[in-house]
Specification:
Helix content is 54%, strand content 10%. It has 3 helices and 3 strands. By secondary structure, the protein is mostly helical. The chain has a 3-stranded mixed sheet, sandwiched between helices. The model has no long low-confidence stretch (mean pLDDT 83).
Length: 99
Amino acid sequence: MNRVRGDTIASGDLLQSIINKGRKIVVATPDSEEARFLDYFGANASVNTGDINQMIVRPDVLKIEILEEFLHGNPTILISQLTKNLEIEWSENQFAGAT
């Protein structure tokens, strides 16, 4: 079954919105390490960069592709923030009980 994934190129406004949400977007140039990374996975965008706030995209990334990758990163970021908040709360409670 051949599924159509869309044909709308991601706009500059969309890319800027993602950046405004705290993500770094690296545009893969031809023959770059980033382009080889995307080639390896057969992808036009990826958040599997080792940095949960960074995504690699091709210059002609589709809107649906970048939105999908943005959403892939959200659970990891939310879990990281929640864990950090719980660690701070636990730490504060430990010190509060020690006085």
